[in-house]
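Handout, page 2. Input:
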Amino acid sequence: MAFGPDAPTSNADLAEYTPKLEALAQDLGLDFYSVDFEVVPPSFMMEVAVYGLPVRMPHWSFGVRYIYQYIQHRMGHSKIFEVVFPGNPNRAYLVNNNSLPENTLVTAHVLGHADFSKNNELFARMQSQVGYHIVEQAAERAHRIEEAIADHGQKRVEAVLDAALALEQNVDVNFPVNRERFPERIEPHGSGEKERQGPFQDRFQDLPGEGSELDTGPRETGRAPIPPRPEYDLLWFIAHYAPDLEGWEQDIFLSVREESFYFYPVFACQIMNEGWASYWHARLLREAEFIPQQLYLDAIKAHSDVVRPYAGESAVALSMNPYHVGFHMWERIIERQGLDTALQLRAEEDDFSFIRNWLDEELAEDLQLFTYTTRKGRGGEEQFVVQDRDINELREAILHPKFNYGAPRVAVEEMATDGSLLLSHDYETDGRGLDLDRARKVLDYIHRVWRRPVRLRTIDAKGKDQLLEKE
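Output:
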């Protein structure tokens, strides 16, 4: 463990507790890559939380996020205890003005994260594709962008970053990071070649009867359409098919895309991952006989603050705390199903299956989870009204913001022979239209790098068809 120059001397005790907590975690069945802990000042921690990484590509949007995070912190609405980056080794940062009990709890919490990220299949798949050294890789990408700024100017590089970061959630994780370009020619029917649609979809192509409805007769050999089907990985498509994209511009798009793949499991497993880490920090502290009694009591008080709902003791929370929900779900699974079952679920599931399979009516009632709406009271005040306690509606309300990485589902529909681009918004799947002002802004970003006409089919907030164009 490393200590910054301003670290309180009491945190030096962590150097004694950390290896003992690691050994205890392994004795209890956790399995993780080594963790490099570092205690850092609050300013460094806030920058890491905002940029997502200790060193990352420079862009004005991170400054906006920093101001927001700073204001929230100063108003007492947020406190960052730790940031951990999965990898081999894991990298964990702790704040030096946390108390010793808080940092002891955080150390145990990080070990839970380390176990989850090594053994969860989604984490493992993404790690194997993008590498296990994200901090160093991100620093190298940032260096390449600094070189591009020196060579091409701040304005040109920023325009490319504007477009890439506006689309950072528009990736398709059903395909690998390194995927092949589309075939340029249509193969004659019966040649034995089948269109690849990604590892998940490809499993079903060889099942008896699959694809027979699409085999309508001989096909002539010729130029293949681009894309051959709706393409949802906008970053990948622009990087490989934008007519005039230069090499350094393509590098920026692919760099943003790789980092999006790295962060996807964190997004898609947040409830599971934070709940798992919270369960294990509580259990490790409870069974760590080497920790002084008073330190344990103070640490458990911090645990109670972490896993409580966002509302006060006598109120009902109007937003869901993933630590709170995840912790109680894992606690009950281990109590009723056993640790072996929990370890298997930790390996195989993500938040979508976890919530649908294991959040039931009993637990939802215990945790006071429900969907709600707002209305104006007689005096004009805003009132919150319970809308539905149906468990299926509740599950989908929790999961809805997680679909498609939380971004509108937009696909490349067609690339015309003149290079113009047609995008389509899958509003039926999203269940809503787009904010047209924001959509036009993003379309403008895309146009800057595509450098040909770009159109987008969507609907507005009232469900009316819209065609946005940038010539």
